[in-house]
Amino acid sequence: MAQTTITEKEKNGMDIFDILGPVMVGPSSSHTAGAARIGAMARTLLGEEVTDAKLHLYGSFAETGKGHGTDRALVAGLLGMKPDDLRIPNAFEEAEKAGLRYTIDEIDLRDAHPNTAVLELTGKSGRALAVQASSLGGGRIMVNKLDGIEVNFTGESNTLVVRNQDEFGSVAAVTSILNQLRVNVANMSVHRHKRGGDALMVIETDQHIKPRQVEFISELPGILGVTYYDKEDDEDGSGFDERNL
Fold first, then answer.
1. Which of 18, 121, 227, 230 is 20 to 30 Å from the Cα of 205, by its Cα?
2. What confidence score (pLDDT) does residue 230 get?
3. What is the phi-psi region of residue 82: left when phi exceeds 0, alpha when psi lies from -120 to 50, beta otherwise?
4. What's the pTM value of the predicted model, to 2 decimals?
């Protein structure tokens, strides 16, 4: 394989954000590709355009993230860019054009993965969401917390994220509907702040769930909102279908 010299790079206007392979822009799958996916995941979970963002970096993200473009990659993801988007190096300029206001600082976390970011987001309607997520390497990510509720999902499977009231029958109602739809549950976890408060169901499925079916689930008693991630549809940037989450 021919090597690219410094002179050729300068001539082409490229630096640390050279394309590495066919799927990412940046020097690090963890610090740039993973960070871009974290930003995009947070945007999708918010369910609307992000207008304000407080980005808190932990561990290696905080120590070496600037040199690896983690800050720009997170902002790029919040703008809806994928890891292979050639605009990532100019994410700050793109954010200014889009009216996205953001701050970036460091945070101290306990028992967190070294490549972790906490994103406090506000959308155009005023909706707010706090997401803690980590980059696991190779562009893979793990969402660790949503609004302080501990969760664990990667987006590598079709995934329902259901916010519900913590009351008798809510979980059974959702799983019953999935059974009727002949949707097999691959993994499921239930999380809550406290008994009787808001809770989250994270349900990974083998089959796809149609938009009208997601909407039906969102209208069940005790359900506060549903977000659906379709693994295959995510290839064209439409992986999440949000219903009042």
1. 121
2. 77
3. beta
4. 0.77
